[in-house]
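Possible regression after last week's pipeline update?

I re-ran a chain I had predicted before the update to compare outputs. Posting the input and the new output here so someone can diff against the archived version. Not blocking, just want to make sure nothing changed silently.
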Amino acid sequence: MGAIRVQQIVQKNGELVIKDLPVIAGQKVEVLLLLDPSTAKSKRPRLTAKDLLNSGLVGLWADRDDITDSAAYARQLREQAQQRPDINGLDDGNS
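New output (post-update):
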């Protein structure tokens, strides 16, 4: 499959018009958009420290009697997440 590179600046939200391509009617093409991270705006606002404190995440495990060391518990959760099969349920060969 050949590739054609076209770089443009989006003029209207949600729309991109590409013209004068060397393709013909009925030809199958695939379009892949690569967003420039320096200009892409996140739809999710960044949380401040105050937002994080008010989010309910801080102290989430405070009332749990089964978690005596929250740092060790978090480390255990991360290790378990790293050892599970990939998203398609297939073994990646590392377990």
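Follow-up from reviewer: compared with the archived run. The mean pLDDT is 82. Marking as no regression found.
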